[in-house]
């Protein structure tokens, strides 16, 4: 099995930079999703790993061996494309056997391997059929069987479930993850569907305009988005963003509705380092509580109710705050009247802060000299105590 490493990888087509300076390490047996909008460079990145494209710059390693100049058939990969690309004139059996015939396997070995992988994917009853006689989900399994039969070290999948209906997608995605773990294959899975990425991946690499925005576990990219793009790309509805002025000390926020809120020192130090007079405040729709007056111990903003969508299990309330629309998920009994004034309350540690200029989450900012500044102001505090306080 194999780890995959990309070092400073670029791919330029004419004047389009499809992939820009990507550095990515994928562990052996890891399942990594590459998630991004249409045209962000996902397929290009996958084809670079597969060897279908050669990088314009940078190197690619499998297990620390430089494979940058190796063609796809020397890389021990399995590829599954979005459109399955089964051979229509071959039976399922022959489709799956094809990669083995290319490698000159003998007939008994081919039969054994095809039957074994077909059984694994539950398609052993379909081996005599032609692709046109299969459903989309069955074709998908055949494509997967054909990729797996070579026992690849790295399985590369490009939006493999996008042609299937929603129910089948959910069913196959859990099977696929289980299979990947059972076989111990390294998997790189391209999708623009964030729920698929969050559900399947050990880690997600979020890409926009050819640039990796963040790589992290589903929990990290959801609750600790590195920038505005990730915050507003992940989540349904995505994170809310409101521009809020800072006071003259640049350590406290002047909240809509008149409240003044001074975040904990850990955040305040970073806000003070941001060279603007405002900050983008972010919060997830499900962390906010609505109330008629501000709740103590919460960060509270006044808002106007715009619309209420009743979805059965929950309601989604759209509100206007400082000219921005925000969405809050509330229990079905909460149904505020459109046009009324109301307060949005968020727990202190659920609030995110982004620098309006760079759009970076301030938690990720390295503030130079901060440690020393704290040490000075902390006076007699022992270092260990300080570290505990700042954790
Ligand atoms: N062979 C090519 N020649 C020229 N430009 C290309 C080529 N392949 C991709 N591009 C461009 O590179 C960018 C990234 O394309 P890519 O196919 O990697 O996007 P993607 O994230 O896979 O999108 P989608 O979700 O729509 O499949 C796009 O702007 C695309 O037009
Ligand atoms: Mg693509």
TrEMBL record:
Return the InterPro entries for the record.
AAA+_ATPase, ABC_transporter-like_ATP-bd, ABC_transporter-like_CS, ABC_transpr_MalK-like, ABC_transpr_MalK/UgpC-like, Mo/tungstate-bd_C_term_dom, NA-bd_OB-fold, P-loop_NTPase
What does the UniProt keyword field contain?
A: ATP-binding, Cell membrane, Membrane, Nucleotide-binding, Translocase, Transport
Check the record and name the Gene3D superfamilies matching this protein: 2.40.50.100, Nucleic acid-binding proteins, P-loop containing nucleotide triphosphate hydrolases
From what superkingdom does this record's organism come?
Answer: Archaea
Gene Ontology CC, one term: ATP-binding cassette (ABC) transporter complex, substrate-binding subunit-containing
Any one Pfam family match given in the protein's UniProt record, by short name: ABC_tran
GO terms (BP aspect): carbohydrate transport
Instruction: Please name the GO terms that the record assigns under molecular function.
Output: ABC-type transporter activity; ATP binding; ATP hydrolysis activity
Q: ABC transporter domain spans which residues?
A: 4-234
Q: What is this protein called?
A: ABC transporter, ATP binding protein
- Per the UniProt record, the source organism is Aeropyrum pernix (strain ATCC 700893 / DSM 11879 / JCM 9820 / NBRC 100138 / K1)
């Amino acid at each position: 099995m194999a780890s995959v490493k990309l070092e400073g990888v670029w791919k330029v087509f004419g004047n389009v930079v499809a992939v820009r300076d990507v550095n990515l390490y994928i562990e052996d047996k890891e399942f990594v999703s590459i998630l991004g909008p249409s045209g962000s460079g996902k397929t290009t990145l996958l084809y670079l790993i597969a060897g279908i494209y050669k990088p314009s710059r940078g190197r690619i390693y499998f297990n620390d061996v430089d494979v940058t100049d190796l063609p796809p058939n020397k890389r021990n990969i399995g590829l599954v494309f979005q459109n399955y690309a089964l051979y229509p004139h071959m039976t399922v059996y022959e489709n799956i056997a094809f990669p083995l015939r290319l490698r000159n396997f003998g007939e008994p070995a081919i039969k054994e391997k095809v039957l074994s992988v077909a059984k694994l994917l539950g398609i052993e009853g379909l081996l005599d059929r032609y692709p046109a006689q299969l459903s989309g989900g069955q074709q998908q399994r055949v494509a997967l069987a054909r990729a797996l039969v070579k026992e690849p070290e790295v399985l590369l999948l490009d939006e493999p479930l996008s042609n299937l209906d929603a129910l089948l997608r959910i069913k196959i995605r859990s099977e696929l993850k289980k299979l990947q773990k059972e076989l111990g294959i390294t998997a790189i899975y391209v999708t623009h569907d964030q729920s698929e990425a969050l559900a399947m991946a050990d880690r997600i690499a979020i890409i926009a305009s050819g640039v990796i925005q963040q790589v992290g576990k589903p929990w990290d990219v959801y609750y600790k988005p590195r920038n505005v793009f990730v915050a507003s790309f992940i989540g349904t509805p995505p994170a809310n963003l409101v521009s809020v002025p800072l006071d003259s000390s640049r350590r406290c926020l002047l909240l809509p509705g008149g409240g003044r809120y001074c975040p904990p020192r850990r955040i305040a130090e970073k806000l003070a380092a941001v060279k603007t007079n405002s900050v983008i405040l972010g919060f997830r729709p499900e962390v906010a509580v609505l109330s008629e007056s501000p709740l103590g111990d919460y960060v509270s903003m006044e808002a106007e109710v715009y619309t209420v969508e009743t979805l059965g299990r929950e309601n989604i309330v759209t509100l206007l705050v400082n000219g921005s629309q925000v969405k809050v998920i509330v229990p079905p009994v909460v149904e505020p009247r459109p046009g009324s004034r109301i307060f949005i309350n968020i727990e202190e540690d659920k609030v995110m802060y982004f620098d309006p200029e760079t759009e970076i989450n301030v938690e990720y900012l390295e503030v130079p000299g901060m440690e020393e500044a704290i040490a000075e102001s902390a006076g007699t505090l022992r270092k260990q105590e300080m570290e505990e306080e700042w954790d």
